[in-house]
Amino acid sequence: MAITEDELRQALVEKARWMNASGLNQGTSGNISARFQDRMLITPSATPYDLMKPEMIASMPIDGEYGTWQGPLKPSTEWRFHLDIMKSRPDVGGIVHTHSTFATVLAIAGKPIPACHYMMAAFGGMDVRVAEYATFGTKALSESALRGLEGRTACLLANHGMIATGANLDKAMWLAVELETIAKQYYHTLLIGGPNLLSEADITDTVKSFGNYGLQDDLS
Question: Would you tell me the crossing angle of helices 79-88 and 139-148 to the nearest 10 degrees?
């Protein structure tokens, strides 16, 4: 059964609260969005998640007048990269942006994540790139994020945080957790001499193996 707009709004509120309670994000620094038909639903700007209600979620047309929105509160200041990803990537139905600790540490250091773990296959290639720095909320940042996401499901944002995408909101949040986990593991390997990296063949074999893996639905 297809999810209704009210259900998706409620899911956005619950996911936003969960990512802070779990430590995946802090305060109101992160933001999440989901595709609903021809519109994008996105968390509002500078609103504590504990106080957020479904009716506060902003709605923006994906292919209509750029930047217009409906709702009692302004959309997140990062609405541009959310909207531009939705516009350019019809496969994306959910987007999670956080300032999670280890992903952000690597982003601050300008270190992409290499193929240090077989779960890197979930990110679409041999690495998770660091998108070039640009001021938050700007078109320049959106363009940088799109380049970082070419052929990928996630990227780091230099001196900022991370973006994870998915076919729906659940899958995007799952990938954001995977990204922070691998970022933490990679960071710690750097403290003991660096990781042993997997080959392209290893990652390709992993992608094939996902066909029989219990999380396959989360990797599509």
Answer: 40
Domains and CATH numbers, the chain: 5-219 (3.40.225.10)
Question: Is 78 assigned a catalytic role?
Answer: yes
Q: pLDDT tens digits, residue range 15-63?
A: 999 999 999 999 989 999 999 999 999 999 999 999 999 999 999 999 9
| HSE value, Cβ hemisphere, 13 Å, CA-based, for 46 | 3
Q: How many CB atoms lie within 10 A of CB 70?
A: 11
CA atoms of 139 and 121, how far apart (whole Å) = 29
Within 10 angstroms of residue 188's Cβ, the number of other Cβ atoms is 11
Q: How many residues does the chain have?
A: 220
Task: Given the residues 14, 55, 65, 78, select the one marked as catalytic.
Answer: 78
List the structure tokens of 43.
């968390």
Q: Would you say 50 and 40 are in contact if contact means Cβ atoms under 8 Å apart?
A: no
Asked if residue 119 lies in contact with residue 173, where contact means CB atoms within 8 angstroms, the answer is no
Q: Between the CA of residue 205 and those of 58, 99, 134, 186, what are the distances in Å? A: 41, 31, 36, 21
Instruction: Give counts: helices (H), strands (E), the chain.
Output: 7, 7
Q: What is the pLDDT of residue 1?
A: 72
Q: Which residue has the tokens 């609103």?
A: 47
